[in-house]
Amino acid sequence: GNSVTQMEGPVTLSEEAFLTINCTYTATGYPSLFWYVQYPGEGLQLLLKATKADDKGSNKGFEATYRKETTSFHLEKGSVQVSDSAVYFCALSLGGGATNKLIFGTGTLLAVQP
Amino acid sequence: NAGVTQTPKFRILKIGQSMTLQCTQDMNHNYMYWYRQDPGMGLKLIYYSVGAGITDKGEVPNGYNVSRSTTEDFPLRLELAAPSQTSVYFCASSYGANTEAFFGQGTRLTVV
């Protein structure tokens, strides 16, 4: 079936450290890939997305590249800030019509310390 | 900019009670979704809808019902609340396939 696997947290980093959160997927067909972020007490909001192989999504200093050969979509940021502390979800979306739905990973908690 | 609005934000139910979680969006989106989020388990899809009058089951539909009589509204009904339904519930909407989903603030439900 279709699924998303992401690294377990929590991930604890010092401010200005480099961040990588791994995400791999299993899908029949050619999914679109997303990273969502959830700040404490809030709903999810889209961070970035990529709709085809080799696309790079980027936003707020975060980047992720759609790698079809390794079925991965790892999230990276060169220098994290305390304000980046949140839960990050990798997700995929397949097709349209009656089959369209977002499938999420379990989420990775990021805690950035000053 | 209202976006996706869920009510209530918090609720405590007794076992066997029923309730409806309300969800409305003002973006004229065709697709709407209900998810539940359990600690450490990510989001599980309960039901979704691709347009008014059309609904379909997700991964964990048992114990829930939905309806989609209008484009704007997608209420989720719990008929006989059980402790296993204690969770945070999120409603979301999107314009179409493979497009960004917008989420509500969530409803924290506790069944005792």
Task: Characterise this structure.
- The complex is a heterodimer of chains A (114) and B (112).
- Chain A is 0% helix and 50% strand.
- Chain A contains no helices and 12 strands.
- Chain A has strands at residues 3-6, 11-14, 19-21, 23-26, 32-38, 44-50, 56-59, 62-65, 75-77, 86-93, 102-104, 108-113.
- In chain A, the strands form 3 sheets. In chain A, strands 2, 5, 6, 10, 11 and 12 form a 6-stranded mixed beta sheet that branches.
- The model of chain A has no long low-confidence stretch (mean pLDDT 91).
- Chain B has 112 residues and is mostly beta strands.
- Helix content of chain B is 0%, strand content 53%.
- In chain B, the strands form 2 sheets. In chain B, strands 2, 4, 5, 6, 9, 10 and 11 form a 7-stranded mixed beta sheet that branches. Chain B has a 4-stranded antiparallel beta sheet with strand order 1-3-8-7, with no helix packed on it.
- Chain B starts with a strand and ends with a strand.
- Classes of the chains: A mainly beta (114), B mainly beta (112).
- Chain A binds chain B through residues 31-32, 34, 42-46, 49, 51, 89, 93, 95-98, 100-107, and chain B through 4, 31, 33, 35, 40-43, 45, 48, 50, 54, 56, 58, 90, 92, 94, 96-98, 100-106.
Share of helical residues of chain A: under 10%
Report the mean per-residue pLDDT of chain B as an integer: 93
**What level of helicity do the residues of chain B show?**
under 10%
Radius of gyration of chain A: 14 Å
The overall pLDDT average of chain A reads: 91
Largest sheet of chain A: 6 strands, mixed
Task: Give the key terms.
heterodimer, A: 114 residues, mainly beta, four-stranded antiparallel sheet, globular, B: 112 residues, seven-stranded mixed sheet, 11 strands, 0% helix, 53% strand
Quickly describe the structure:
The complex is a heterodimer of chains A (114) and B (112). Chain A is mainly β and 114 residues long.
Write the layout of secondary structure elements.
The complex is a heterodimer of chains A (114) and B (112).
Chain A: E1 3-6, E2 11-14, E3 19-21, E4 23-26, E5 32-38, E6 44-50, E7 56-59, E8 62-65, E9 75-77, E10 86-93, E11 102-104, E12 108-113
Chain B: E1 4-7, E2 10-13, E3 19-25, E4 31-38, E5 42-51, E6 54-57, E7 64-66, E8 76-78, E9 87-94, E10 101-103, E11 107-111
Parallel strand pairs in B: 2-11
Antiparallel strand pairs in B: 1-3, 3-8, 4-5, 4-9, 5-6, 7-8, 9-10, 9-11
